Amino acid sequence: MATQKSAARKKTKAKPKAKAKAVAHGHHKPANSNEPSLSARPIWQGSLRLSLVSCPVALYGATSRTADVSFHLLNPETNNRIRMIPTDPDTGPVERADLVKGYEISKNHYVVLSNDEIAAVRLETTKTIDIERFVDEKEIDRLYWNDPYYLLPNEKNGTEAYAVIREALAETGRIALGRVVMHTRERMVALEPRDRGIIVYTLRMGDEVVQPKQAFEDIPSTKPDKQMIDIARKIIEQQEGTFEPEKFEDRYEKALRDLIRRKEKGEKLVTAEPVEEDNVIDLMAALKKSLKAKGGNGNSAGRRKAR
Predict the structure, then answer these.
(1) Which of 13, 116, 181, 264 maximizes the CB count within 10 A of its CB?
(2) What is the SS3 assignment for 164?
(3) b vs e for 206-225, b when ≥16 Cβ sit within 10 Å of the residue's Cβ?
(4) Which CATH code is given to the segment(s) 33-66+109-211?
């Protein structure tokens, strides 16, 4: 009995220490909070290297979808969750462990590759982000920016080297480009200094981006009415403001959560009738109505320019 009590006391004493560590790393968040926070574990660990200067670092996702509403598929007769079982259309269910990967070269014709064959050509999972060059941020088309991550020092003895690289980037006003292997794939990354740290963005490769010229080539080259452009410009000027992401919310997600809460309480739900929309509009009339609805007559734009 004494042994059990002493073990319990040890566990109790250990808890505050673990909690303090989590807070220090930004991993703790209040219960029932929808605020995104850093994950407890990094998605990648290795070194950041600038020429002969290197430091141990770790990558954490800068965004989170954990607050999203997600559903499971249930059997309505039993309310049991459905299991997805791999099935051969001819022979029936098969073991997932027995499956192999195939690349379709033509309809129903595959080149079959074993895991060992794929592993033989897999890139070495390097543990280093090597900085290769420095560019102006404006040189990187926004089409190529992908997911953001936070790059944090991973050991105390590497914080000085980390700070040197961060400050050098900040003072030169440059974005560093490098490569990293994540999830067995090599990715280009851009490193941007921010506050006391560094943000890493994965960049899309050239063969992943459809060029705008190709996407927009079928749009007719027409010259809109000058008066309509002027009205549209005044509407834009009336609605100018700062970017405040905290004021944006996913209204569909919010409505889903409200629906779930009402359903949980046993409330009887009524489906609203769909609203019919008339897509035939007088463009000039719509523009003028929009301008009037914003409470302006066009003079506010002129006054703004005069200042």
Answers:
(1) 181
(2) helix
(3) eeeeeeeeeeeeeeeeeeee
(4) 2.40.290.10
